[in-house]
Specification:
235 residues, alpha+beta, Endonuclease, Chain A, eight-stranded mixed beta sheet, 8 strands, 44% helix
Length: 235
């Protein structure tokens, strides 16, 4: 009789633990559909519950076996995202996804190829990444960079003089139309430029994947672009 009672007690604890985890995962996934007007960096400043943190850590362990890496999962981005899930603006806030994934990265570098870059929140996310002593390389389209510079780019001013952030601009006027980044553990691709309208208002896509082959291909191509002899070196 005591044995049966003990089994029932253990089963009760197991069921309770499962329900807490299930609720945490639901909270975590629901954050992806946060109102597009929300402040994305507020997602990065400890607003999540203890159960959401637990869910994120459990997702991290799961994803590590897939990616061969162990970066902390962004608690506003479900783990399935890193397996190639596509997100869509304006129904989702792509700015929040990009910013959170970058700030929560535990990898050692960041290579960004971005056609248009005027989003202050994403610039702040990059400076926070670089503030840990990690190197950032940003490759830009010539025409877009020149237009932003003539208007007095706040993003450029924020990066100016930061020794951990290197910027180069394509020398040719043939478009550099990529909107992507890689930290060696995660690859971001999609149609969304780094502007508030591109990330939150326009019809755009964002995909994050931890596929090692896709990451290697992006970084090999990025290194070729970065090494072009006619690049303009900004800093």
């Amino acid at each position: 009789m005591r044995f049966i009672v003990a089994l029932l007690v253990l089963a009760g604890f197991a069921w309770g633990g499962y329900r807490i985890y299930e609720q945490a995962v639901g909270d975590n996934a629901g954050q992806m559909h946060h109102n597009s007007a929300a402040e994305p960096l507020s997602l990065l400043r400890g607003s999540h519950s203890t159960t959401s943190l637990l869910a994120g850590l459990l997702h991290s362990a799961t994803r590590a076996s897939y990616a061969g890496q162990s970066p902390l999962v962004s608690r506003s981005v479900p783990a399935a995202t890193y397996h190639g899930a596509v997100h869509y603006a304006p129904s989702e806030n792509l700015e929040a996804i990009d910013a959170s994934a970058i700030v929560n990265s535990h990898c050692d570098h960041l290579d960004v190829a971005m056609y248009s870059f005027t989003d202050w929140e994403l610039a702040e996310a990059i400076t926070r990444f670089a503030g840990n002593g990690r190197k950032v390389r940003i490759y830009r389209d010539r025409e877009q960079y020149d237009q932003e510079d003539r208007r007095g780019s706040h993003v450029g001013n924020l990066f100016h003089g930061n020794r951990n952030i290197a910027i180069r601009v394509k020398g040719s006027r043939i478009l550099m139309h990529i909107k992507g980044w890689s930290d060696g553990c995660t690859l971001r691709e999609g149609s969304a430029n780094w502007s508030p309208s591109g990330e939150k208002q326009q019809d755009n896509t964002l995909t994050l994947t931890a596929d090692p082959g896709a990451i290697r291909a992006y970084e090999a191509n990025f290194n070729k672009m970065w090494s072009r002899a006619d690049n303009q070196i900004i800093q």
